[in-house]
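Shipment paperwork, digital attachment
Item: protein structure file
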Amino acid sequence: MLTDAAELANFKVLQLVHENTAAATMFGIDTKIEEGKNLTVLFYNMGGMDTEVTIARYSLYNITEKKNAPYIDILIETNNKELGVTDLVNILVNILADKFN
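Attachment content:
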């Protein structure tokens, strides 16, 4: 299981976070957002056998009159288990083979 390593290290697992959501969170922590503006970013991860996409929106949330905090809104997370880089390579090979022949 995915939680075995955490439990061996005496960590209590509350919830697993999707890989793209983790990347979106780190991006939000590392990125400075201008006050009054939103930033929308698409995170794309094409693996060998599947493709994952996450769209996140970043803005500032007013905590007090003088203090803002970053706000991350995950708009969508989706994946396709039938489309990976292997499929893309096969398409490119066929295109190049047709051009060569």
